Amino acid sequence: MSSDMQLKKHVEDELSWEPGVNAAAIGVAVKDAVVTLTGHVPGFAEKRTAEQAVLRIHGVRALANELEVRFLAGSEQTDEDIALKAASALLWHSSIPKDHIKVQVSNGFITLEGTVDWQYQREAAESAVENLLGVKGVYNTVTVQPSHMRAEVRSEIESALKRNAVIDARHISVSVLGNRVILSGETDSFFKKITAERAAWKAPGVTWVENNIQVSPASRAATAA
Domain 79-144 has what CATH class? Predict the structure, then answer.
């Protein structure tokens, strides 16, 4: 069995194992370890759950999530309904600063705009609205505003990577340019690449993370003792 065929089977098995996904409605294609999902799901939450399930799998280099959201009969919502629910969700979320984020809705797609002090607040805003009934997708254009970045932030990020049980930090390099963090090196899974990026985003003052980590199942990170 070729590596792509084996990876396809692993993806299909993982989707079948995931209780939040109807795997029978999802098609899986794999070429050069890049996974493409096709088909339709009844909500954006299931589309996101399928995406997260695939990214957990060892050997996946990248994912093209082409799943279409098709709502069940009677569950459609107007853009006005979605906008009102989204605004309320943001208002009542304790991690999101009040009046910093605006919501626009068009054909079921939410666009978030504004500025926040921390990346976790940007992520919290997206999480607050993505599971609302009627949402087909979320465009998160919220930006993290520049703030003072401590001189030791590079070593702090490196320490955070070393503490993380998922990441093999020996093969990842960290550079800091202004308020931008640049990650380079290699790892053996896309999930580890994203985990490293999320760790870097937690540093105070970071406004952008450039993730240049290469994913290779046969990398030194996978074979190192």
Answer: alpha beta
